[in-house]
Design brief:
alpha+beta, 4-stranded antiparallel sheet, 9 helices, globular
């Protein structure tokens, strides 16, 4: 699991430094738009929208872009027919992969995602084939450097409602139930805790160890999927050593 956590942290850092701002901003705007459409324009009462706005601000997305996306979501500036779709499949080594996408053409996107899986050593699966392997969780990353007493902090976070806390590579990864995510996040902010990254995501229940050429092919497949215009998030249950993973993503 340590390799998977490392991957999560590397991706979070890379997203903040992504040079292809146009593509990144388009994906962030879609998430904001759909969140506003489904839950309303107020981030105080719409947790999903607040998370999307936080991600956009962390990526230095201009506030006017954020406001425009919210207005598109509520229909104030016209609306786009964007659907949320999920694709399931297997990568090299039998690793389960869950792909979250937003598209205005379901058939086109499905065909393109299937092609990517096939071209890079994976295969698409039927709905439900791998979804059961993942659980929806809140994940909040905190820099351990700013915590005076780590053991005391972990106990405090558990009292706030967190399910688990893991420490790796200078980061405390706080896991919450989705319903407790906003409460825990807000409590940490009120305490002045330095939050590195936070999101509602899918966490695997079990992991598949891969290495060498298999790991290289797997990471390539995941990166190609993530680069697709319609793909918002890719989740996978791999376990690769942190050292090998960092080398593959360099």
């Amino acid at each position: 699991m340590s390799g998977h956590s490392k991957w999560h942290n590397i991706r979070a850092k890379k997203s903040k430094m992504d040079a292809r701002k146009g593509k990144l901003f388009t994906k962030l705007a879609r998430e904001i738009q759909v969140a506003a459409r489904n839950g309303g324009p107020n981030p105080e009462t719409n947790v999903r929208l607040r998370i999307a706005i936080d991600k956009a601000l962390a990526a230095n997305m201009p506030k006017e872009n954020i406001e425009r996306a919210i207005k598109k979501g509520t229909g104030e500036l016209g609306s786009e027919n964007i659907e949320e779709v999920t694709y399931e499949g297997y990568g090299p080594g039998g690793v389960a992969i869950l792909v979250e996408a937003m598209t205005d053409n379901r058939n086109r996107t499905a065909g393109e995602i299937r092609h990517i899986f096939s071209k890079y050593g994976g295969s698409m699966a039927e709905a439900g084939a791998v979804a059961w392997i993942f659980e929806r969780k809140g994940v909040i990353d905190v820099k351990a450097e700013g915590i005076a007493d780590t053991d005391e902090f972990i106990l405090e976070v558990i009292d706030l409602g967190a399910e688990d806390v893991k420490e790796e590579d200078g980061i405390l990864e706080i896991i919450t139930d989705p319903k407790d995510y906003a409460t825990v996040l807000e409590s940490l902010r009120e305490r002045g805790v330095d939050i590195e990254n936070s999101e509602l995501t899918f966490v695997p229940k079990n992991y598949v160890a891969v290495s060498g050429e298999t790991a290289e092919k797997l990471i390539k497949l995941i990166q190609i999927l993530e680069d697709h215009d319609d793909v918002q998030n890719v989740h996978a249950n791999f376990d690769i050593s942190p050292e090998e993973l960092e080398a593959l993503m360099a």
